């Protein structure tokens, strides 16, 4: 069984995730997170929020999943958010053409190639339809737009789309968000939410789905002045697989610190380098195996239309590299596009330290001359003169000045323009912020973390499977078991479980089956600690504790067994202070050896 198949089997059996709507035959690319998966997902999202919102001092918003068409006209998604599709002439199945090439040749990033070249490669390598094995040679490779379309309200006059990335919900609202940030750059706005892509061929369970969760941060900066706090991460070592290395014969991955990567120009943008450093530490925190992880730079043809420097964080599962996060320097592309299409102001007013005096060229054209002379074009001619005065005041040096309106030249005597150059005092200027974006796919991170934490060993002569998830991410922190459901053991165990829950720990109570089987169940969902109440717990004062704490009195002495998942080592600990100790174990303030 491959690593991925093993994972999908465990995920279904133990309630991490499973295909949705299977009672009705299901729909490819949609998955439901079960109780363990939903808890793991929310822990990973909380860890993301903690690092990228709280610790960075950014703000979080929640925008709608459906947005009207003009948003995606402006963002470029309507025209350009396409993947390459090839349809089988025999059975009609559709496939992602670039993936077929990658799966059947040594080419790694066929997405960066033109459609015609992909079509030629399909023919050259005799690639067949994966569904019916007919030849796909000579089948056209077309573009397929990945957005899900819908209608807003009855009728079709107001088309809308399910957002293909959460980012647009931030960019569109920039004017308001900037106001909330008191128009002070830099500031960051984050969002964790659903994104939808009508993928041509969903595959590898959570890796390529049609509805998924993204955690995105848009960090708005002044490109002239703002610098990232690089010193905070400068010593973090980055496993970098640059575009140059990918293109050279003997090029491979290099380990460079953040500082070295910037100094050597391997990572062009200091902001991108900063987030690569922050993220390298974050992936480790949530359980990505750093021996199966790299940052890969986009090849020139692969880069999104808006981005100047792009790196992907990639994890390895089953020998394949999966993009789990995209890091992009998006420049001012998004804000410029929304400004152009909406006519709204997507700039920030940047106040100067001291007001400055500048010479400003202005015109005040005589409309009683322009009107009769240019008729319906008079207003446009006046606007063009104004723009020209600002752009190139020297054009007004002669007796006449010429402007173009709709491709037609109009000449105006300079004296009719009332051209003048005056000294004005300015307090600041409007600037268009640039954007740095780390964009995380939560599902792919979950898939990676589960694959990388999957372990097996032998315990008491039997094979055991367990997930060595970091305690902070584990869906359940503590399993509480009565050894047997008699003589007050269940009462005491229930009481302890309640105490632990009251202390904020995530607890599972389990009294069914042999104790060994209960340990295995928790091992398989990655529960780091299990507490067992046994006869000794009752003998050393626990029974009294159970009855007294039920009546509201202070708890008394009593001990339980605490078992650690990875080593299966067991220790006897007092019930008093148990919640505190387990809480500190879970946050890493205490180790099992310290107990
Ligand atoms: P790919 O090339 O794999 O289609 P992408 O480059 O289009 O991904 P981005 O647009 O950069 O992906 O999206 C940011 C993140 O969202 C990705 O790094 C990934 O983790 C996640 N993501 C994108 N598409 C999907 C999908 N279909 N299923 C699951 N996660 C996805």
Automatic annotation (TrEMBL):
Q: What class of enzyme is it?
A: ligase
User: Which ranges are annotated Basic and acidic residues under compositional bias?
Assistant: 562-572
Q: Which SUPFAM superfamilies match?
A: Class II aaRS ABD-related, Class II aaRS and biotin synthetases
**Annotated localization:** Cytoplasm
Residue span(s) of domain Aminoacyl-transfer RNA synthetases class-II family profile: 5-482
- One Gene Ontology term of the molecular function aspect: ATP binding
Its GO CC terms are: cytoplasm
* UniProt cross-references to InterPro entries, sorted A to Z: aa-tRNA-synt_IIb, aa-tRNA-synth_II, aa-tRNA-synth_II/BPL/LPL, Anticodon-bd, Anticodon-bd_dom_sf, Gly-tRNA_synthase/POLG2, GlyRS-like_core, tRNA-synt_gly
Q: Which UniProt keywords apply?
A: Aminoacyl-tRNA synthetase, ATP-binding, Cytoplasm, Ligase, Nucleotide-binding, Protein biosynthesis
An example GO BP is: glycyl-tRNA aminoacylation
Q: Which residues form a coiled coil?
A: none
| The protein's Enzyme Commission number | 6.1.1.14
Q: Where is this region: Disordered?
A: 540-572
Q: Which family does it belong to?
A: Belongs to the class-II aminoacyl-tRNA synthetase family.
What is the protein name for this chain? Answer: glycine--tRNA ligase
Q: Which organism is the protein's source?
A: Haloarcula hispanica
Instruction: Identify the taxonomic lineage of the organism of origin.
Output: Archaea, Methanobacteriati, Methanobacteriota, Stenosarchaea group, Halobacteria
Name of the gene this protein is made from: glyS
């Amino acid at each position: 069984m491959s690593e991925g198949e093993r994972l999908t089997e465990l995920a279904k059996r133990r309630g991490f995730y499973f295909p949705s709507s299977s009672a009705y035959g299901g729909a490819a690319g949609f998955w439901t997170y079960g109780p363990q998966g939903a808890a793991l997902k929310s822990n990973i999202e909380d860890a993301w929020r903690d690092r990228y919102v709280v610790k960075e001092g950014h703000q979080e918003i929640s925008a709608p999943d459906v947005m009207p068409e003009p948003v995606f006209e402006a963002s470029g998604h309507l025209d350009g958010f396409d993947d390459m599709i090839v349809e089988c002439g025999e059975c009609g199945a559709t496939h992602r053409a670039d993936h077929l090439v990658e799966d059947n040749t040594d080419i790694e990033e066929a997405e960066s190639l033109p459609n015609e070249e992909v079509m030629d490669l399909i023919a050259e390598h005799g690639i067949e339809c994966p569904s019916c094995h007919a030849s796909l040679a000579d089948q056209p490779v077309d573009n397929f737009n990945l957005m899900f379309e819908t209608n807003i309200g009855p009728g079709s006059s107001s088309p809308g789309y399910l957002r293909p990335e959460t980012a647009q919900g931030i960019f569109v609202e920039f004017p308001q968000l900037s106001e909330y940030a008191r128009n002070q750059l830099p500031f960051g706005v984050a969002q964790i939410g659903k994104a939808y892509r009508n993928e041509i061929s969903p595959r590898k369970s959570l890796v390529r789905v049609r509805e998924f969760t993204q955690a995105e941060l848009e960090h708005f900066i002044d490109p002239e002045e703002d610098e990232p706090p690089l010193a905070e991460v400068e010593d973090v070592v980055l496993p970098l697989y640059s575009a140059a290395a990918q293109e050279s014969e003997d090029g491979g991955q290099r380990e460079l610190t953040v500082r070295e990567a910037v100094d050597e120009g391997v990572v062009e943008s200091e902001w991108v380098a900063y987030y690569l450093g922050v993220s390298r530490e974050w992936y480790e925190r949530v359980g990505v195996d750093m021996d199966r992880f790299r940052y890969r730079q986009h090849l020139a043809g692969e880069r999104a239309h808006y981005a100047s420097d792009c790196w992907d964080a990639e994890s390895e599962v089953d020998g394949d590299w999966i993009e789990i996060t995209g890091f992009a320097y998006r420049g001012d592309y998004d804000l410029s596009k929304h400004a152009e299409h909406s006519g709204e102001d997507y700039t920030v007013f940047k106040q100067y330290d001291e007001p400055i005096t500048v010479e400003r060229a202005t015109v005040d054209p005589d409309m009683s001359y322009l009107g009769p002379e240019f008729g319906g074009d008079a207003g446009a001619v006046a606007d063009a003169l104004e723009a020209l005065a600002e752009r190139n005041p020297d054009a007004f040096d002669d007796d006449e000045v010429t402007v173009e309106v709709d491709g037609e030249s109009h000449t105006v005597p300079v004296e009719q323009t009332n051209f003048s150059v005056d000294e004005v005092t300015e307090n600041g200027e409007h600037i268009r912020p640039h954007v740095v974006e780390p964009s995380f796919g939560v599902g792919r991170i979950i898939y990676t973390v589960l694959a990388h934490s999957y372990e097996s060993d032998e315990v008491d002569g039997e094979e055991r499977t367990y997930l060595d998830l970091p305690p902070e991410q584990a869906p359940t922190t503590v399993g509480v078991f009565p050894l047997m459901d008699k003589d007050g053991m269940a009462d005491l165990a229930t009481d302890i479980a309640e105490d632990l829950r009251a202390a904020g720990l995530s607890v599972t109570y389990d009294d069914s089956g042999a104790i060994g089987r209960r340990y295995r169940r928790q091992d398989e969902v990655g529960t780091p600690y299990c507490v067992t109440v046994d006869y000794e717990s009752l003998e050393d004062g626990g029974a009294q504790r159970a009855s007294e704490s039920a009546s509201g009195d202070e708890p008394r002495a009593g001990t339980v067994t605490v078992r650690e998942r990875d080593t299966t080592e067991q220790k006897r600990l007092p019930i008093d202070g148990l919640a505190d100790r387990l809480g500190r174990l879970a946050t890493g303030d205490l180790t099992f050896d310290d107990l």
